[in-house]
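Hypothesis: this fold can be encoded by more than one sequence.
Test: take the structure tokens below, design a sequence, compare later.
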């Protein structure tokens, strides 16, 4: 079952101070995070420990234990075979890195901790948000991403209720801590990606199969926008111009072409919901030496992932079902 995909939908808020539940849009949340809004019940702002926070929509079908395995779940990854069988996180470590980590015994312990981490799946919105976050925060600008539609085993045992986002500061969750013996899947309120949506922490054994397509999709760009952007970029100089003023020595020289590319990306980001704008601008940042046509096609296709999710769903519908 596909749930309605809506990056701009209103969110449920719950105040820890007065217990009031209310509905807001993403622009309200953006203003609230900057201290410009307060709880309509008790006046608490974001600076307070009991301030309002997003909470689960009571109409979310994933709250029904019997429907958790019937709805479509999503994940984005740079791994072309996620979830990888016999995952060995230490395989990519160089001998020098292994020495810096303290030797093979410590490397083995680290690898065991990595394998003990839960997998994460969530809404389509959360999967796209995760990809943008990784590109911005984890140097994955040049990486090929894949979006996965995940099908759970019908027999999965779902933990009762839902948890507040259990992730640590780097987004990790230890599987045994949220899925005790006899439990396969734990629901949690996602605060960071598709805030207010339900995501799942689970082990590989809970997944029946996946479908996968590389993103952004080929040819999924706005041809008119790409043509206009390329024409403008190719007429702008690519020679870096040193900054001027008191802070000039701290600012890297930028070419008029790169500056224009960033302005074009910012204009596209302005079309997006408030919680995606900064990440999209970072994801679509034009770098010195970028090919204008390649940059414009990729940037427009990234926007299409958000503005036209049916194109991705159609591609996934034609993709092979791979058993896990």
């Amino acid at each position: 079952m596909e749930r309605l995909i809506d990056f701009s939908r209103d969110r449920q808020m719950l105040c820890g101070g007065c217990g009031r539940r209310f509905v807001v849009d993403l622009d309200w949340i953006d203003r609230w995070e900057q201290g410009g809004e307060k709880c309509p019940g008790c006046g608490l702002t974001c600076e307070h420990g009991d301030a309002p926070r997003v909470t689960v929509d009571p109409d979310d079908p994933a709250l029904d234990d019997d429907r958790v395995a019937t709805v479509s779940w999503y994940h984005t990854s740079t791994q072309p075979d996620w979830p990888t069988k016999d995952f060995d996180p230490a395989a990519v470590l160089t001998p020098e890195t292994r020495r810096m980590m303290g030797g093979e015994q410590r490397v083995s312990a680290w690898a065991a901790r990595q394998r003990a981490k839960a997998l994460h799946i969530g809404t389509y919105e959360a999967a796209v948000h995760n990809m943008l976050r990784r590109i911005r925060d984890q140097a994955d600008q040049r990486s090929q991403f894949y979006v996965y539609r995940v099908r759970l085993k019908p027999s999965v045992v779902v933990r009762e209720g839902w948890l507040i986002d259990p992730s640590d500061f780097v987004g990790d969750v230890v599987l045994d801590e949220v899925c005790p013996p006899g439990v396969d899947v734990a629901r949690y309120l996602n605060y960071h990606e598709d805030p207010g949506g339900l995501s799942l922490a689970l082990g590989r054994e809970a997944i029946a199969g996946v479908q996968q397509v590389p993103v952004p999709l080929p040819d999924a760009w706005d041809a008119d926008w790409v043509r206009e952007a390329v024409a403008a970029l190719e007429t702008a100089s690519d020679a870096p111009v040193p900054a001027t003023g008191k802070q000039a020595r701290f600012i890297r020289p930028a070419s008029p072409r790169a500056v224009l590319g960033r302005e074009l990306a910012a204009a596209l980001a302005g079309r997006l919901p408030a919680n995606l704008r900064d990440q999209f601008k970072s994801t679509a940042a034009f770098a010195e030496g970028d090919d204008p046509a390649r940059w414009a096609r990729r940037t427009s296709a990234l926007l299409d992932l958000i503005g036209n999710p049916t194109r991705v769903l159609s591609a996934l519908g034609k993709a092979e079902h791979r058993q896990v």
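Residues 227 and 293 are 8 Å apart (CA to CA). The mean pLDDT is 90.
Hypothesis status: open.
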